[in-house]
Amino acid sequence: MGFFANWFKSKAKPADPPAGPPVEPPAAASQNAESAASAPAQQQADALIAEGNALEDAGDIQAAIGKYEQALAAAPGYWRALLNLGIAFDAEGNVRQAVPMLRQAHALHPQSHITCYNLGRALAKTGDYAPAIELLQTALRLKPDFFEAHIVLADAYEENQLPNEALRQLNQALALRPGHTGALRNKAILLKDEHPDEAEAIYEEIIDQAPDLLTGYAQLLLARGESERAFEFHKRAFESNSGAESLGALLMSMCYTASVSGADLLPWHRKINAFLDKTGSIGAIGAKDNELHEKIRLGFISPDFRRHPVAYFAEPLFENIDKEKFDIFMYFSHEKKDDLTERFRALAPHWREIIDLNARSAARQIREDGIDILIDLAGHTAGNRRDVLALKPAPIQATWLGYIGTTGIDEVDFRIVDETSDPPGMTENQHSETLIRLPLTQWCYKPQPNTPAVSPLPALANGCITFGSFNQCAKLSDPCLQMWARLMQQVPGSRIQFMAIAEGKARERIAALLGQHGIERQRITFHKRVPWTQYFNSYAQVDIALDSWPYTGGTTTCDTLLMGVPVITLAGTRSVARSGASLLTALGHPEWIAQTPDQFVQIGVQLASDLPALERLRASLREQFMASPIADAAGFARRFENAMMQMCDLRTVIS
Questions:
Q1: What pTM was computed for the model?
Q2: Is the pLDDT assigned to residue 303 strictly greater than 80?
Q3: 258 backbone dihedrals φ, ψ, rounded to 5°
Q4: N or C: more exposed end of the chain, with fewer CB within 10 A?
């Protein structure tokens, strides 16, 4: 939700009239605060600050910083110079450089709502929420009608997992400025997961007021499975507000949209190059002519070294890769950290946090580290660093895991896949990268500690087959649900359970679509998103799992198989539509892979018709899974290492 909050800056400009007693400190404190510089020095500094403000308003942040630095040199310790310099550093994207300046300004003027607000806002951006919240609360005590502080405080509360407090602040902001588009936008974002219907009503109220709102509305539609409508809104958003962010959201939506063909993918993805700044590429001069290090320096750049599906597949690789042959560098690009982040940090001989670095600074760090191969784990997903990849900081660049498709970025040389996800001759024309196919599988799954035991087959107690869906609602396209309804028609008395489906229109859509194909509402059970332990326990209620389409499952498929539940998948002709096929092939159960919807139904009917066989399968499937290449972390690491050497051998071909 922080995007709108980051628009707000509040300055103490020399030309501003005093804002009353709350802004200025008491006389004694003011005397101490200003004592570091004489009145003429302050006047000179004020003039320089005014020039800097004008430059900043004109968009020339670098020139403004120069003026503020001159002001600080003219009047050392002057709080206005410190404040403006800190705000400018923040505007430039160097928030950690801004914080010390803003701390000094606040120390000199602790009873100013302006210094409290700006320091609190900067600390919130660094993830230091507790002091940020305290400072923003102080700003509001000093100036209760401070609209911007309500917005930023709401953002800090939301990031600190306090949604009710965040909503209260947004409502107070809207009481000050009823109908304010930005505040309503933030409220819609806050509500969209748990109260999507309320969020939709807000979007429909404000959707015509600003083109950037189209993307948010499209994401809400996608979250409840209306992928075709979402895709159309994403296209409208891109057409009205062309840029990397709107295009990235459009590219992500293509993964979920059944009407998108393989031929559509590459032309759309290549458009991203027009929105990436490649000026003065860090690695452009001589990078590909350099000899690689004898011990290959392997860099991984990701926002997901934390509790995220990508992390569960990446961690076993890092635990098993040969650190005598490869020197591992991790470049972490997310502000949130957790216990899994600490595990990654412990596994990394070289750990870098680049969340606060702009593209050139991050690329320069990678270049200085001498990375031979840089592997992107995000693609076009949230928190990606496309901007860094476009500067080509490493002579070899590849993408793997996080985004199941091409990046379209000219500077990314390879995509790491396997022979089932991307069979030779099927998907090459969907990629700007050269495909590197890992033997057996591109997946390496590590079960989480305390995963519950496999339960008995529920059909034995229920007297009927229960199908289950564990993928997010966005993946449940209309053709997918229609195919499932056909299967349920062929299995009399069968039921279906949906996990992680929000109440309201998302459930209504699914029930209505299944109902159109003869599946009564009483045969359908919905569950909201639940904590990890409840999620795994829910497998005890399901006999056969149905994979989504066209965006098939990855993490959820592994979870499901580990819990003894077979998965039926429909293999498409795009990479994203073949993850399920890839996993089931590696597991040794290609008979659960359908090539057509009719075959999907046939496989489901066959599995459901033999309960003794289904019971035996449930009892043995975890053991099969753990013995498969998917869970063989050491073997996967060796195959991955070989792929790295293959890319080194091929680099002269792509140069």
A1: 0.82
A2: yes
A3: -65, -30
A4: C
